[in-house]
Amino acid sequence: MLNVALPKGRLGDKVYSLFASIGYECPSMNEDNRKLVFESTEKNVRYLLVKPSDVAIYVERGAADIGVVGKDTLLETTPDVYELLDLKLGKCSLAVAARNGWIDDVSAPLRVATKYPNVAQTYFATQNRQIEIIKLNGSIELAPILGLSDVIFDIVETGTTLRENNLSVYTTVAQSSARLIANKSSYQFKAGIIDDICRRIEERL
Amino acid sequence: MLNILPLREQLPLKLRAIYELYGYKKYRMDKFEPYDMYRENKSFLKYDGIITFTNPNGRLMALKPDVTMSIVKNTADSAESTKLYYNENVFRLQHSNGEYSEINQLGLEFIGGESGYSQAEVVILALRSLEAINNNFVLNIAHMGFIASLLDYAGITNGNREECLALIKQKNTHGLCEYACKYALDNRSTEALRAVIGISGNFKNALEKLSGLAVNNSMKEAVDELSDLLRAVTEVGMEKKLQLDFSVINDPDYYNGIVFQGYIPKTPRAVLSGGRYDNLMRRFGKAKNAIGFALYLGELDRALNTTEEFDTDLLLIYGDAPSWQVVKAVETLKASCDSIRAEKNIPVGIKAKKTIYIAEVI
Q1: What does the pLDDT look like over B96-130, one tens digit per residue?
Q2: How many CA atoms lie within 13 A of A1 on its CB side?
Q3: pLDDT band per the 50, 70, 90 thresholds, residue B77
Q4: Terminus of chain A with fewer CB atoms < 10 Å: N or C?
């Protein structure tokens, strides 16, 4: 049985449709309920719905054999897993954004509000810029509006949220999309089915 | 007597027997070391921090985070070869949660051996060690010399190597394509790197594919070394357990030649890791070559521990009976069960296969 960790939410739905379309469907997934584990004995696969930022942990620790997770999360948590495929879904970029017309005061440390403290730290270190990280868990856009931070370091999908809050992208740092990851040990013993999934998805993309 | 020990405790004894059989001697390590040595070679222990303290003379000391470095430092650079094994606890500071951790490392080192036989012997012992844990296992092997040579061939300079090695370790072909664009690698090199990532599975077939990618002498030498190894492992009939897989490559500052990692089902990480580390020897000013591996038995705790259904076989409730009667009852009953536990009253939270009252036996 192959355990597949999917991120709960819109991305997870898209990814499941992709898996179903390549022959790994699991009818119980379509039922409207609050279950978190869905199993198809016929296809020998079990889907687990987990919080998107937890997918990598499930896979790294072997609770799931493979999983789908955003590159942004992989950059932030650097789990020890195989990154087998770029699914090209859930595309977004990691960017530094600030209030429209903001002017950088280079004489002071830059205050950065972000959900991604590690990626931000690494990026600003390459810029030789001293920063102060303000770790937030959501509504990052609020921080520069209230003067809590100078800039935000966050994912930008369409830019609508930024625009509506009078913010704009200052620098784009990295691109992100959904990646198929695999536990290193599971891959050794389930390479047959994992490679098959990769091959079929690649044909789809 | 060995049978009552859980597999987790039997294992070190089984492994010792294997290593002794091949002429390895046990190495006992001191737990403390001046910190300087680790400061200079910090990247050898890439993932974790070192626990330090100041000794009464004001010198900064470390609780040993690793055994191999101590062995390398302490081996005399004489002509003879040294074969050692160890079973030690090492100490690290885990960055992820800032906690101190104690890690059990069991492994062996073959220092100063002639290269062909020493690596065949060490790889076979690695296979035998994994076999002692579980019949279902794989040993993934890669060759650092081949990779180094391929990176040279692709014109990847030192500053960008680490990034490329990280992609190979992740089997990240899409990332490699981006990397190739970013550093303007030519098509042939990019294809070769992609092919190397794609190599996995059966050693013999994979080796043929690798042989097709070898374009210069040092790559060909690496392929020859691997096929010699395959030939040697075939002699002990374990060639099916070998896989060629370049995701096991390690830090080139320390490792050269073959490197390997062993996996068993139900443990999320590699349980065995090793390779040829002549470069580490050079860093300590030693001319000899060396190869070895370590097993991380802590990784196995969950895979090996079969949780027992009952706390005890027989529970004897003696109530107000005098102690001599209880002793007598235990003496007679112990022959008929694996474990017996005498309690005055029925204890809370103890699961016994069978409960009897002393009145029933006297």
Answers
A1: 677 888 888 899 999 988 878 999 999 999 999 99
A2: 16
A3: confident
A4: C
DSSP calls for A9-38: SHHHHHHHHHHHHTT---GGGGS-S--SEE
Pairwise CB contact (< 8 Å): A184 & B200:
no
The answer to whether residues B103 and B298 touch, using CB atoms and an 8 Å cutoff, is: yes
Count other Cβ atoms within 10 Å, centred on residue B136. Answer: 14
Length of chain A: 205
Q: Would you call A62 and B267 a contact, using CB atoms and an 8 Å cutoff?
A: yes
- Count CB pairs under 8 A between chains A and B: 46
Average pLDDT value over all residues in chain A: 93
Residues facing A110 on adjacent strands: A131
Q: Do A83 and B243 touch (CB under 8 A)?
A: no
Q: What is the pLDDT of residue B1?
A: 47
Q: What is the mean pLDDT of residues A75-82?
A: 94
B313-341 average pLDDT score: 89
Query: Quick one: average pLDDT of A20-26?
Result: 92
Does B340 reach chain A within 8 Å, measured CB to CB? no
Could you tell me which residues come within 8 angstroms of residue B276 by beta carbon, excluding any fewer than 6 positions away?
Answer: B115, B119, B144, B255, B256, B257, B258, B259, B289, B290, B291
Distance separating alpha carbons of residues A6 and B57, to the nearest angstrom = 56
Q: Which residues of A67-80 are buried (b: 16+ CB within 10 A; e: fewer)?
A: bbbbbbbbbbbebe
Whether residue B298 lies within 8 A of chain A, CB to CB, comes out as: no
Q: What is the DSSP string of B126-176?
A: HHHHHHHH-SS-EEEEEEHHHHHHHHHHTT--HHHHHHHHHHHHTT-HHHH
Please provide the distance, in angstroms rounded to a whole number, between the alpha carbons at the two ends of chain B: 30
Percent of chain B with pLDDT strictly greater than 90: 56
A81 to B172: CB separation less than 8 angstroms, yes or no: no
What angle is formed at CA B146 by the lines to CA B196 and CA B270, rounded to 5 degrees? 65
